[in-house]
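TA notes, week 10

Several of you asked for a full example with nothing omitted. So below is the full record: structure tokens for the whole chain, then the designed sequence directly under it. When grading your own attempts, check the secondary structure regions first.
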């Protein structure tokens, strides 16, 4: 059987990020892939990997080769333990290679005495540094059908590699994630022989006291809230952790490998690009491991976020909450709008492109397709040039960084999340793209077909989800329409352009210079809302003043009544005093009359 390199051979000239380094072409100890053709693989809907049933550990016969890539930086002590644990794995040794990439920055690393049979150490290629750089160096040198990332401070349990690789025998577009617990190193580290014996003997969980370790908290919470990612169709990539993850070499190549410009956050960024290649993310709790040391995010979370968020905001458009600026251009757009300029009138092309660029969705890009290579500088009649419309379109947008030119649209717009194909002469409204993408996300539709004109010839626009299209093209059988696969794995829908304010150019609203960007609209909306709120407060204030006047009048009336009552009370007190005085003056006479009356009654009774 012919041998197959993992990634493309080294290019001529200086190394480019993500490309193999000169002199690091990989020896290939493994035969070609044994996985069935893509058309025979299972078709997972969204990220519901529950439709796949992996074999029981120890009860199956593996056949796929795996390259365990370990980026290492000044970590000899923990590296020895990682290699010792890999030497005790249940996955067949003849199907496994281990590549340790020395990232420099200290004494040269060496291979410990206890290590897997097929283990080698290579230097990180010149020109860069960091985990992503080292990982890409290892991937370039690897020959396995599956690449398994493993950090140099991990102690994988006996079935760790086997648990992950059993999934890769089912489908070639899976990203498998292991589980880990963090170990506080205050109590010291075990010896390499002890680690090997524990892993090979199946009692690695006893190497450290369970109660003295910590889980990967936020990841476990994310998995619990999403049914182990089965109910997480769009952002499952968020838990992609390179400390223990595996991916097919084919999928890694399709995604473009590591972004070697990143020194932190590279796991999330790679996970996003893998998702845009149709990946399904599968966590396997049986792929257990110890992480020797506490989690960096757990101990310095605020600093890590401060470092990573600006970088991820440029590269991961799905993180909408990081893209709050209303008009900034981003490295990776959220939507790539493709407009075919071939054979179209310049005025129609301009109307469509201007409508897109005026969108309230700021992170959009436009790809103008057409035979741009035919626009030569030879002498011509300026006004009678048959390519005049094409020339005018290029002249209008060649200096706009949001617009690019291509001969053909290509199969997808990865790593952008969406692609909108719209014919020249049809203009989306200012909020059309935002509403369309939101609608596509309500049920994670793979394609929205938009009918623009159905009277004579059917005219349509088409919003494509990149992840759905890339997965469909991989899974489609020969001669099968990829849209049928999209319908089965993501779903497709038909809708009307009028419902989304996509109108022909003569009927569309022209972009206004008085409203240069979405921020102006937002501020004007805020002003209108505050004016309405102020009017409500003024009305409420007038009502309060009216009620206050009534209360003042009522209080004055009560004060007048109180004065009258005090006067009447004083008069009654004077009358009481007068009567008491008169009674006192007549008291002796009244007492004498009383005695006379009592004596008369006594005489009558006698």
């Amino acid at each position: 059987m012919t041998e197959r390199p993992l990634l493309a051979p080294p290019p001529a000239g200086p190394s480019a990020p993500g490309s193999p380094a000169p002199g690091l072409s990989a020896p290939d100890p493994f035969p070609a892939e044994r996985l069935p053709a893509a058309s025979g693989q299972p078709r997972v809907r969204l990220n519901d990997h529950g439709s796949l049933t992996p074999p029981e550990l120890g009860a199956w016969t593996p056949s796929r080769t795996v390259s365990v890539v370990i980026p290492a930086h000044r970590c000899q002590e923990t590296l020895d333990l990682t290699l010792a644990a890999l030497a005790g794995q249940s996955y067949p040794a003849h199907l496994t290679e281990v590549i340790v990439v020395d990232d420099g920055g200290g004494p040269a690393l060496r291979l410990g005495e206890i290590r897997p049979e097929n283990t080698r150490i290579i230097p990180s290629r010149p020109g860069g540094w960091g985990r992503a750089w080292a990982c890409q160096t290892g991937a370039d040198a690897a020959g396995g059908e599956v690449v398994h990332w493993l950090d140099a401070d991990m102690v994988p349990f006996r079935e760790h590699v086997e648990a992950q690789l059993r999934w890769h025998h089912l489908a070639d577009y899976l990203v498998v994630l292991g589980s880990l617990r963090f170990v506080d190193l205050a109590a010291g580290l075990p010896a390499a022989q002890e680690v090997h014996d524990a892993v090979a003997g199946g009692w690695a969980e006893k190497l450290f006291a369970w109660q003295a370790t910590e889980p990967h908290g936020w990841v476990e919470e994310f998995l619990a809230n999403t049914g182990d990612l089965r109910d997480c169709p769009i952002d499952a990539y968020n838990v992609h952790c390179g400390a223990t993850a595996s991916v097919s070499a084919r999928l890694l190549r399709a995604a473009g490998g590591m972004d070697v410009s990143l020194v932190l956050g590279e796991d999330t960024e790679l996970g996003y690009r893998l998702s845009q290649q149709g990946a399904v993310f599968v966590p396997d709790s049986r792929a257990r491991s110890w992480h020797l040391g506490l989690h960096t995010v757990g101990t310095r979370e605020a600093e890590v976020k401060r470092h990573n968020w600006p970088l991820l905001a440029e590269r991961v458009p799905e993180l909408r909450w990081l893209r709050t600026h209303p008009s900034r251009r981003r490295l990776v757009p959220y939507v790539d709008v493709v407009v075919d300029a071939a054979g179209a009138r310049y005025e129609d092309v301009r109307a469509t492109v201007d409508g897109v660029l005026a969108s309230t969705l700021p992170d959009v890009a436009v790809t103008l397709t057409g035979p741009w290579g035919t626009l030569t500088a030879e002498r011509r009649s300026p006004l009678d040039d048959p390519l005049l419309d094409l020339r005018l379109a290029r002249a209008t947008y060649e200096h706009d960084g949001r617009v690019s030119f291509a001969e053909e649209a290509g199969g997808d717009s990865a790593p952008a999340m969406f692609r909108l194909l719209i014919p020249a002469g049809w203009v989306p409204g200012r909020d059309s793209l935002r509403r369309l993408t939101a609608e596509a996300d309500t049920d994670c539709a793979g394609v929205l077909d938009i009918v623009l004109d159905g009277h004579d010839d059917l005219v349509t626009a088409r919003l494509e989800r990149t992840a759905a299209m890339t997965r469909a093209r991989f899974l489609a059988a020969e001669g099968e329409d990829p849209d049928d696969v999209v319908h089965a794995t993501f779903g497709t829908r038909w809708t009307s352009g009028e419902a989304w304010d996509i109108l022909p150019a003569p009927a569309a609203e022209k972009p206004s210079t008085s409203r240069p960007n979405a921020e102006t609209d937002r501020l004007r909306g805020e002003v209108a809302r505050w004016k309405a709120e102020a009017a409500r407060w003024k009305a409420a204030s007038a009502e309060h003043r009216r009620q206050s006047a009534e209360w003042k009048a009522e209080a004055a009336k009560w004060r007048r009544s109180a004065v009258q009552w005090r006067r009447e009370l004083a008069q009654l007190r004077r009358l009481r005093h007068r009567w008491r005085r008169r009674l006192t003056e007549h008291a002796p006479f009244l007492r004498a009359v009383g005695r006379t009356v009592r004596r008369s009654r006594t005489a009558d009774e006698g």
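Residues 62-322 form a domain with the Spore Coat Polysaccharide Biosynthesis Protein SpsA; Chain A fold (CATH 3.90.550.10). Use that as a sanity check on your answer.
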